Amino acid sequence: MSFTLTALIPGVGHEYAHVATAAIVSAGLVGLTFWGRRSLGKGDDAVAPARTLSTRGIIESITELIDGLVKMVIGEHGRPFVPMFASVFLFVLVNNLLGVFPGMSPATENLNTTLAMGVFMFLTYNFLGFREHGRSYLKHFMGPIIWLAPMMIVIELISHLVRPVSLGLRLANVMRGDHTVVGIFLDLFPIGLPVPFYLLGIFVCVVQAFVFTMLSMVYVALATAHDH
């Protein structure tokens, strides 16, 4: 079992290192939220974009990216979900990037964490689907042809139940593999050679955060669409 810095926290140990990392990242993002709200100021300053490369500018760019993706995937009615998707993206991204640093155990490497996130998105998009359509949301599971409904219900139920598992497995396994490769080359060649693998690892971290968020958007879009 590899050494992790969070395992040094009293009462944590290696078994709950990922929980400690998730808690630290969550607390950091909440603190960043309050700092960002305070830095906005009031009046015209609150709506004026950042003029320099700063933490506020980076957060604004990420929010604009998520907003554009939401409008493209879900539509205008998905704008209220932008804060949720931005939070999911940042949580996954920061955890992924932490794994690039030696001695850190990111929560997104642990299957318990990623499956919990998958279940959260599963419950969320189904709740939004029921809220949007009421009981008519159940027709989504029956298909367009009534006499095929019994078969379609089974297929749709399996498809929906697989979604949280696929979200969790994909994220955890890819990030574990990526960080393992970086760690191996870092042990073999501490200087020089690991740099390209660090860059590749950072790229994978960003892509996986994007993929998890995009798939979650697609599920919400399918659940809240009015054409089924």
Strand content: under 5%
Summed over residues and divided by their number, the pLDDT gives a mean of 81
Model regions low in confidence, pLDDT < 50 over at least 5 residues: none
Largest sheet: none
- Gyration radius, rounded: 20 Å
Spatial shape: globular
Count of domains: 1
Alpha carbon gap, first and last residue: 49 Å
By DSSP (H or I, 4+ residues per run), the number of helices equals: 7
In which range does the helix fraction lie? Answer: 55-70%
Task: Report the order of strands and helices.
Answer: HHHHHHH
Kindly name the structural category.
mainly alpha
Q: In total, how many beta strands?
A: 0
What secondary-structure arrangement, pairings included, does this model have?
Blueprint: H1 17-40, H2 44-47, H3 55-73, H4 82-98, H5 111-133, H6 149-188, H7 194-224
Helix pairs in contact: 1-4, 3-4, 4-7, 5-6, 5-7, 6-7
Produce a short descriptive summary.
The model has no long low-confidence stretch (mean pLDDT 81). The N and C termini lie far apart (49 Å). The radius of gyration is 20 Å and the shape is globular.
Describe what you observe in this structure.
The protein is 69% helix and 0% strand. It is mainly alpha-helical and 228 residues long. The mean pLDDT is 81. The radius of gyration is 20 Å and the shape is globular. It has one domain (5-224). Helix 4 (82-98) packs antiparallel against helix 7 (194-224). The longest helix is centred in the last third of the chain and has 40 residues, at 149-188. The protein is built from seven helices and no strands.
